[in-house]
Amino acid sequence: MAEENNYLLEMRGITKIFPGVKANDNIDLLVKKGEIHALVGENGAGKTTLMKILYGLYDSDQGEIYFAGNKIRMTDPQQAINLGIGMVHQHFKLIDTLTVTENIILGSEPRQGVAINYREARRQVEEISNKYNLKVDPDAKIQDISVGMQQRVEIIKILYRGADLLIFDEPTAVLTPQEIDELFEIFNSLQEQGKTIIFITHKLREVKAISDRITVLRDGKSVDSVNTEEVTEKDVAELMVGREVLFRVDKGEAKPGESVFQVENLQVKDNRGIMTVNGISFEISKGEIFGIAGVEGNGQTELVEALTGLRQIAGGRVYYKGEDITELSAREIKDRHIGHIPEDRLRRGLVTQFSLSENFILGFHHQEPYSKNIFMNYKAIDQHAQSLIQDFDVRTSSHQILASKLSGGNQQKLIIAREFRQDPELLIAAQPTRGVDVGSIEFIHSQLIKKRDEGTAILLVSAELSEVMSLSDRLGVIYEGEIVKTFAADEADEREIGRLMTGSGKEVKTGE
Amino acid sequence: MINILIELGFALFSIVIALLVGIAFILLAGESPLDAYHALYIGSIGSWREFLNTLWRATPLIFTGFALALPFKAGLFNIGGEGQLLVGGFAAGFVGFYFTGIPGGLHVALAIIAAIAAGALWGLIPGILKAYKGAHEVITTIMLNYIAIQLTIRYGIERYRIGGRQALPTIQDSAKLLRFNDLAELPVVGSLPFIEAFALPGLRLHFNFILALLAALFLWYLLWKTTTGYELRAVGFNASAAEYGGISSKKTIILSMVIAGALAGLAGAGEALGTHHTFMSGMDAGLGFTGIAVALLGRNHPFGIVAAGILFGALSQGGLEMQFVGIPSEIVTIIQALVIFFVAGLQMLKWFLLKQREKGEAE
Amino acid sequence: METIAQMFTLPLLLISFRYATPLILAALGGVFNERSGVINIALEGMMLFGAFAAVYGSGVTGNPWIGVLYSIGAGLAFALILAIVCVTFKADQIVVATGINIFASGLTIYFLQVLYGVAGTSPRAPRLPSIRILGMRYNPITLIAVALVPIVWFILFKTPWGLRIRSIGEHPSAADTLGINVNRYRFICVLISGALAGLAGAHLSIGEFSAFVREMSQGRGFIALAAMIFGKWHPVGAFGAALLFGYAEAISIRVDFAFIPSELIRAIPYVLTIIVLAGFIGKAIPPKAIGKPYFKGED
User: Which of A190, B254, C57, C76 is deepest in the core (most CB within 10 A)?
Assistant: First the structure.
């Protein structure tokens, strides 16, 4: 191959199949030495899987990898490290109770006799820190430093091990705007020193700002590789999202009634105490679907948990049918006929070691007829389960098998059946079709529409833009914890939404 | 159904291996394994009376097994059965000897209630600390075991004992739990035809065994027929999903520990009011810890625990006969420990096989 | 006043070191395994078996130092069970350790009967020589225990090895991505823990005494666990806590209190540990990954 010398890394025809999903389907990724290469795509497009294959965390089913001209087959991270490939994981691999220096040298410590030579270690850390302008405090503990500094520690960690190719998995997801600017300066100084960078993201503004070339993935396939300067953000957004709307839903005109649900200036913190929902307001009427589109990690999880009583609300109010429900518990909210399809059915939505029958009453087990006082009525519970299995076409041999035995689509139908049967007047549906087969998707969509037509107010939160667009009567785009724009269904433009959800519709924030 | 049979198979398999390894220890002691296991058989289920005494031995183990199993269903490891048994036994023994002039039935009931309350308190403390402070229940229950030893066996006995015996004074007759061999002397019951079968000298079975069976039914009902049990199992399997279902994991954790403590307290009550007729040093005899093995072997199911408790009871009771023919009865303790290793190990094997099978299906 | 004066005499402080010795050793062992992410509630059983093995070794060879080696071997043997079943095969650490404690209790009494034909106390065996320091007699194991404190501190906080142990107890997958073999380190840490707990047993049987008595560890393995927690998983902290607990034992035995029963004084270590665990005074935070088996490649 004549062009061999041009590329530091060549991944060709990479295919990786997980049970039921083709995560990577014949992907090509070619990275030139010394460039900043952006790898972009929506959630589930296959970016992270591809990088885990490169880093030796997964083995590919097909395909070849060449690094610096040599064919390699990666089996574990240590091998990647030895070859000079380093990865900054989205969730940092740092030990909170140790110092910056200790985290960096862990596993290849400079020694003096049997002891660690901390002076030498600190010297090396400072040397790297100065060379690449990565400001860190070598003696601080990880738990006491900012997320931005933690990321710099991760970068020094891989440079300390002599990495030439640095992979960043969504590095800006956890950073403040100032920290993002600093990170890009670091990228530039790394590039000046001859390092090569692969940068995974879905924020196109950033791609445009920093990268040299872009590879776009969609649905596990590599769609295109382009030079950054030759394309606009709009072009990339189109490549990323795809032109075609995948699922067409037959739905009639919405006939919204009175407003039943009002969210006012809602603020919610995430597990780390960072405000991830920054003053969101909207309202939903009877018989209307309000969709929230956005790339995951922009506050959707916290928003939904806050509205369903699973997370404390930091500020703002929530009203349901005129009642202030801001402070209510999950059970109190459930008891008010507010349905919730959780985004992660295995973590939240199901007790997989429970039978289908028992799962069909999760959250309603304390209500009649399923129980009276504290006594369960399993006859009623089983009847309930059987009728739901029939009505919602849950494919199973019996209502007594464990929920873990169902396919993803049928698990999701179980949850939907459970929430729908309680006749919710408000339904909060988060990622309702995630990881389910096409047949189930269609079924779930038609059920949502049916519920709407019966007069239910529906909040639909989804990372699937096509889903939000085809189902919603009105929709808002969420970015960094704010709804940046709201559209009526007929005036929503896919490309514009694509830009808004990747942050490029928003004015560039600097130094605020 | 098949699952139950597999579980049963694994349990029996562990016991068989443990007994086989036990042969080595018998040979090392210079004894004949055949003689030893014959003695074990004779001493445990060789006769009607020994069988009933096996049930007597099993009683506290069944209770302490429950004390581990219930919190385990909610995802907690209650190592505190020993301490909960001690405070329960002490409370029962204290009420039993200290108060006089209370009518028979009432006195027993009061003593038992005192034991339940004390045990429940000893479960409440680690429950609250876990739910609200995140303090690891394994460590807090271990510490509470030793606090219980100091409070009851060391301090409590020292304070009230009469003479040299390391025990509280003997309980009043009115506080004694009914023994099976006293049944024949009761007015109406005594005239029943089969009652003679229990009028055996040396029979030590008392009514706490009946309470243990009732407790098994209670737990089974609680776990699988009430909302409380539903919530408890939901929290144990998936606390996030339980929370989504409006279930408070804090309340559930505390409740499971309180009931567990009460059940272990009942074990103590039986020992104090039925077996020894006093609270004495050494009464616990590791019953709390053996209960962990019983729960493990019984797969944390109330009926499984009854069966496993009877099995361990048979080992203990049979061990006496072994001792009688000159074979170290501690072989029984060793076998009990081996059962734990093998059950724990086999669980992993099962898990491993399951994983292999899933892998095979995925490919 | 007199009682208080009695509480702070030099001999009492000096003798605390003798009571504290098994606690120091087992707590140092506990620091190793817990820092690596393995719970070891079998310190008690390891100590008990070590105590028996020391008497046996000393009696058979007539050399108490051989007895010391036997005690270490006994602790190692039990630790090997824990390491294989829990680290290699990933079974539940609490269950298996409970099994080990029961096993130790049964096995030592069994050996008493099989080897010596007695039920309670073994025949006498040669004990370790004693050394007089400031007028107090100490056996060498006490000195070893005290000497080990800075050594363990050095290993844990100054060597690459210690850094790795501390990292795998907090965040095993982070260590794994840097090429550190998590389960191998855990295996070794459990073995070290067993060796130290076994040595603690020798102190009880042939250090302070010259025979084995059934159940002679009397919960000291669990107090050592308490000392380790009270000392916040730090060797020097564990040493301080062990000394405090040893002192509590010393005054409960040697000082006559008019107003507080000595039995209650001996409950103080346990109460303090609960208080610290619950965070009422300076929360004790265990290593994050403790008690969880590590499967390679997990997050």
Answer: C57
| pLDDT band (50, 70, 90) for residue A243 | low
Query: CA-CA distance, A481 to A277, in Å (whole number)?
Result: 4
pLDDT, greater one: C36 or B198? C36
Parent domain of B269: 60-306
Q: A116-161, pLDDT tens digit by residue?
A: 999 999 999 999 999 988 999 999 999 888 888 999 999 999 999 9
In chain C the beta strands, taken as DSSP E runs, fall at: 131-133, 136-138
Q: Is residue C130 part of a domain?
A: no
- Residue B232 lies inside a defined structural domain of this protein: yes
Q: What are phi and psi of A340, to 5 degrees?
A: -145, 115
Phi, psi values for residue B156, rounded to 5°: -60, -50
Question: How much is the average pLDDT of A445-456?
Answer: 93
Nearest to A81 among C159, C173, C179 (CB): C179
| Least confidently predicted of A88-97, A447-456, B60-69, B83-92 | A88-97
CA distance A78 to B166: 63
Mean pLDDT of A478-503: 85
Q: What is the pLDDT of residue A508?
A: 41
Q: Write out the two tokens for C261.
A: 């029963």
Q: Check CB contact of B144 with chain C, cutoff 8 Å.
A: yes
What is the C-alpha separation between A502 and A40, in angstroms, rounded? 11
- Residue with the two structure tokens 């100084």: A189
Is the CB of residue C292 less than 8 Å from the CB of residue C286? no
The rounded distance, in Å, linking the Cα atoms of C182 and C160 is 14
Per the structure block, which two tokens stand in for B3? 């699952």
Question: pLDDT tens digits for B36-83?
Answer: 999 999 999 999 999 999 999 999 999 999 999 999 999 999 999 999
Cβ proximity of C67 and C57 under 8 Å: yes
- In total, how many domains does chain B have? 1
Chain C contacts of A81, Cβ < 8 Å? 178-179
Answer yes or no: do A115 and C154 touch at CB < 8 A: yes
Q: For residue B226, what is the nearest residue in chain A, using CA coordinates?
A: A375
Residue with tokens 């389910």: A436
Across residues C192-211, what is the average pLDDT? 97
| Least CB–CB distance from C103: residue in B140, B337, B344 | B337
Ramachandran category for residue C219: left, alpha or beta (phi over 0 → left; psi -120 to 50 → alpha): left
Burial of C281 (0-12, 13-18, 19+ CB in 10 A): exposed
User: Which amino acid, one-letter code, is at A112?
Assistant: Q
- Retrieve residue B229's tokens: 């049990």
Q: With the C-alpha atoms ordered A363, A365, A370, A372, is the resulting torsion angle positive or negative?
A: negative
Residue C75 within any structural domain of the chain:
yes
Spell out the residues 6+ positions from residue C43 whose beta carbon is closer than 8 angstroms to its own: C26, C29, C30, C193, C197, C221, C222, C224, C225
With beta carbons less than 8 A apart as the criterion, state whether B278 and B272 touch: yes
Q: Decide if A349 and B244 are in contact by the 8 Å CB cutoff.
A: yes
A395 φ/ψ angles, rounded to the nearest 5 degrees: -80, 110
Residues A443 and C274: their CA atoms lie apart, in Å, by 54
Overall number of domains in chain C? 1
Q: Judge contact between A425 and A260, C-beta under 8 A.
A: yes
Per the prediction, chain A carries an average pLDDT of 88
The mean pLDDT value for C149-162 works out to 97
C283 in contact with A at a CB cutoff of 8 Å? no
pLDDT tens-digit profile of B149-164? 999 999 999 999 988 8
Cα B280 from Cα C174, distance rounded (Å):
52
Residue B1: predicted pLDDT: 59
Determine the 3-state secondary structure of A288 from DSSP.
coil
At residue A409 the predicted structure's pLDDT band, cuts being 50, 70 and 90, is confident
Q: What is the CATH number of the domain that holds C187?
A: 1.10.3470.10
